[in-house]
Amino acid sequence: MLGALAAAFVIADQVSKALVRATQAQGGFPVEVLPGVVGFEYVENRGAAFGLGEGFGFVFVLLAVVMVAASVVYLVRAPRVSRLEVVGLGMVCGGAIGNAIDRVALGYVTDFITTRFMSFPSLNIADIGVTVGVVIALIGFIFLSPANEKERSDGR
């Protein structure tokens, strides 16, 4: 399940970014999706979140590799995990791989989803996978993990 979900996020991320780059080449941006709320705008992000860390792309690729490896090791070694942990980690891995592909192939990450109602950095499908995936995995680990069943039943 981890591999399939990660692959789905990588595919969705890479297809959306390819479409964005093709649209940019034709001068098709910016686009208002929900006026005043969200739009699409082509951005070449050479850093990480909020554009920080410009010039350290190799470090972010290395972190993606470590994140995927750590997720796989955790899922293999944990005696029992909740389905939400697997889903969340699959999203995180897919997002990490999606952005790593951009960094290696292009030297930057293609971002395109922008908020219009507040000042917030542009993002992409991979960023959503990482962010939402972490939250889902933590909820699964803290509240639903079968490994924590005994502690919950003991009242601890």
UniProtKB/TrEMBL annotation:
Alphabetized UniProt keyword annotations: Aspartyl protease, Cell membrane, Hydrolase, Membrane, Protease, Transmembrane, Transmembrane helix
Involved pathway(s): Protein modification; lipoprotein biosynthesis (signal peptide cleavage)
Locations listed in the record: Cell membrane
Residues the record marks as active site: 111, 127
Segments crossing the lipid bilayer: 55-76, 88-108, 128-147
Chief location bin: membrane
UniProt-listed PROSITE patterns: SPASE_II
Encoding gene per record: lspA
Enzyme superclass (EC): hydrolase
A GO CC term assigned to this protein in UniProt: plasma membrane
Pfam families (UniProt xref): Peptidase_A8 (PF01252)
Free-text function comment from the UniProt entry: This protein specifically catalyzes the removal of signal peptides from prolipoproteins.
Protein name (Swiss-Prot/TrEMBL): Lipoprotein signal peptidase
Assigned EC number: 3.4.23.36
PANTHER family, A to Z: LIPOPROTEIN SIGNAL PEPTIDASE
Protein family (similarity comment): Belongs to the peptidase A8 family.
GO biological processes: proteolysis
Membrane topology designation: Multi-pass membrane protein
GO MF terms held by the record: aspartic-type endopeptidase activity
Reactions catalysed according to its record: Release of signal peptides from bacterial membrane prolipoproteins. Hydrolyzes -Xaa-Yaa-Zaa-|-(S,diacylglyceryl)Cys-, in which Xaa is hydrophobic (preferably Leu), and Yaa (Ala or Ser) and Zaa (Gly or Ala) have small, neutral side chains
Parts forming coiled coils: none
Organismal lineage: Bacteria, Bacillati, Actinomycetota, Coriobacteriia, Coriobacteriales
